[in-house]
Amino acid sequence: MSVPTVVVHRNADVLAKAVAARIITRLVDVQSAKGSASLVLTGGSVGIATLTAIRDTPARDAVDWRRLDLWWGDERFLPSGDPERNETGAREALLDHVDVDPSRVHVMAGPDSGLSAEESADAYATELAKAARPEDHGPAPSFDVMLLGMGPDAHVASLFPGMPALYDTRPVVAVHGAPKPPPTRISLTLPTIQGSREVWVVAAGEEKSGAVRLALSESGPVQVPAAGARARGRTLFLLDRAAAGKIPLGLGRIASP
Q1: pLDDT tens, 183-214?
Q2: Which of these, 82, 193, 74, 203, lies nearest to 145 by C-alpha position?
Q3: Which of 41, 53, 87, 243 is most buried, judged by most C-beta within 10 A?
Q4: How far apart are the C-alpha atoms of 84 and 220, rounded to whole Å?
Q5: 99 Cβ partners below 8 Å, 6+ apart?
């Protein structure tokens, strides 16, 4: 797994715009090299702000949206269209405004599908397996970019500290009893996250600063899940100044003074 590179931006607004620009550049580069690309989306305020920033920049047209596979790192087990679903936020912020191929938008099913949370996780694992290629060396694709938000407790996706999902080696799991609502969720697991070509952990706000410090330390992923958010290739921690406030001096590169 790769050692994280830390990039610090002035504030949350600049961070979202900078991540948006970085995503566009990365997707264009990958599509130029191999024809298509894959991006794993996250929810949360910065995650949705990033998608909004992509929507609002003319540079978005550099991406061939028809040749992009979109996945989710986690989802709240709620009905389709529920405003609390990560999918709903992503569609409103970006996906309804670009020419995506619906067959390449891979949604985690909610209870309105008739599936239980466990069945939804299994169905997503099957979809991942269909998309995986021999060079991925596993039951899920090696995603070109995986975006992850991070909570003040250092959770990523829906992998919360000390919960059984952190020990799970399946590609996708149902999470029950999450410490923040809703309690039932679907989440990729650490092995799937760690199989990505690039993992970008995006965090803003002083309330995240302690978790960021722990995630960049020698902490174990069972108590600090973000410490396990590492890619096969490149890992980035993209932060605003407030979230970076407790990391050692000199660890991060200041991108926007």
Answers
A1: 999 999 999 999 999 999 999 999 999 999 99
A2: 193
A3: 243
A4: 30
A5: 65, 66
